[in-house]
Amino acid sequence: MTALEFDKEIASLRPTLRGFTHRFTRDREESLDLVQDTILKALTYRNKFREDTNLKGWLFTIMRNTYINNYRKSKRERTSTDNTKELYHLNVEDMHTFNRPEGSVEFKEVWRNVNDVKDELLIPFKMHTTGYKYHEIAEHLNLPIGTVKNRIFHARKEIQKKLIGYQ
Which of 7, 35, 61, 70 is 20 to 30 A away from residue 23, measured at CA? Predict the structure, then answer.
């Protein structure tokens, strides 16, 4: 098959490919992107196509693999991994964002309530929320690790009581 015949055959299969995308996605834009990616890969790797192979099946395989790879990539991008020994961070996507919190009255009110917590609870709590590990806080404050965990727990509880109206 010549390059021109190959291109014509792929172009004629475009509507079939578009219909096949409904197995993967119902979103129109994502569907069109998937078809475009499939055709681009087919044209790029034309030399990998063998004459005795079903072109439509070959394109469907490219499309399926492209969809799976894109799905896995997007899943990896949404997930953060915790490589710490103590596994302090959850392996979930952060769904919370603030749009210019410095201008938000609610944000300021939350931090005013946080700062009203007793210093013996607040210092370990703020250290923990800024990324320090329990053992680092314990070393810095010269406290047992259990005391540090307890103070952070009680700081959270106290803050939660003060913020009941914000839920």
Answer: 7
